[in-house]
Amino acid sequence: MSAVTAAPPDSFRVGFIGAGNMAESIARGVAKSGVVPAASIRTSHRRAERRDAFRSFGVEILEDSAKVVDDSDIIILSVKPQMVKNVLLELKPTFSKEKVLVSVAAGIKLKDLQEWSGHQRLIRVMPNTPSAVGEAASVMCMGEMATKKDEDRVASLFGAIGKVWTADEKYFDAVTGLSGSGPAYIYLAIEAMADGGVAAGLPRDLALGLASQTVLGAAAMVRNTGKHPGQLKDAVTSPAGTTIAGIHELEKGGFRGTLMSAVVAATKRCQELSKT
C-alpha cells in the first residue's frame, strides 16, 4: 500500500451518480479546493432538497443520470451497494470508452462493476465520512484499463478531501472494516471519554470538548511525528502515575482486543455483503 500525491489539476468534468451525503462531501471538497470548479461538476436527483444542496455551491443539475454520464469525463458512482447493479445495467448503453467510472460503493468488486457496466476504465475508491470536513482516509485501486492520467485525476479529487492511498483490491474489505467503519469506533470512544469526564465532575460541554480535541491531537501526533503509537503512549505514562492507572483499567476491559475484534467483524461483514 502506498500514499498518493495528487498531480496538478487539469481540465475535466466530474459527474455524480447518486447525490447523497458522501457525494455531497466529495463534491464540496473538490469545488472548495479548486481541483475542479463547481461549474464542472454535475449530478441529478429526484428529490428537490438534494438538488438544492448541490446547486447551493454551484453544481450543475441535469435531468437524469444518463445525461450526467454523457456530460462528464469522470463519473463517480455513489449509490447504495444494493443499487449498483441495477443502476449500471440501466446506464450501460451510455458509457463510452473515454469515460472513467469510479465506484465508492462498499463491497462491490471491479469485476462486477465491469460486468454490469460493460466498461473497462474503472477505479474503485473507499473513502470515509470525515470527507465532510476534509479529513477523509481514502484508498483506491485501479482497473486494468485505467490509465496513469485516470489515476492522477481521481487522486486529485479524493486528495481534495483528505489523504489517499493505493492498494490491491484484495485489501478492500479490510479497508472498509478499518477506515470505512472506523469513525464510528472513534465516536464511541470520544463519547465514552466525555462520559468519564462527567462522571469525574466535569461539565458536559467541557468534557466533550476535551475528549474530542484530545483524540484529534493524539492522531496528529501519530501522523506528524512518525513515531509508533506505543512509543508515544510510553512518553505519557509516568511510573505510578495517573495515565498508567487508566491504561490498566483499559487493559482489564480488553480495550485493544475489542477494537481489533471490531475491525475484523466489520471486515467479515463486508465480505458477506460482497457475496450477496
UniProtKB/TrEMBL annotation:
Keywords: Amino-acid biosynthesis, Cytoplasm, NADP, Oxidoreductase, Proline biosynthesis. Pfam families: F420_oxidored (PF03807), P5CR_dimer (PF14748). One of its GO terms (molecular function) is pyrroline-5-carboxylate reductase activity. Residues 169-273 form the Pyrroline-5-carboxylate reductase dimerisation domain. Its EC number is 1.5.1.2. NADP(+) binds at residues 17-22. The keyword DNA-binding does not apply. It catalyses: L-proline + NAD(+) = (S)-1-pyrroline-5-carboxylate + NADH + 2 H(+); L-proline + NADP(+) = (S)-1-pyrroline-5-carboxylate + NADPH + 2 H(+). GO terms for cellular component: cytoplasm. Residues 13-107 form the Pyrroline-5-carboxylate reductase catalytic N-terminal domain. Pathway: Amino-acid biosynthesis; L-proline biosynthesis; L-proline from L-glutamate 5-semialdehyde: step 1/1. The keyword Plastid does not apply. It comes from the Eukaryota. NCBIfam families: proC. Belongs to the pyrroline-5-carboxylate reductase family. PANTHER family: PYRROLINE-5-CARBOXYLATE REDUCTASE (PTHR11645), PYRROLINE-5-CARBOXYLATE REDUCTASE 3 (PTHR11645:SF0). This is Pyrroline-5-carboxylate reductase.
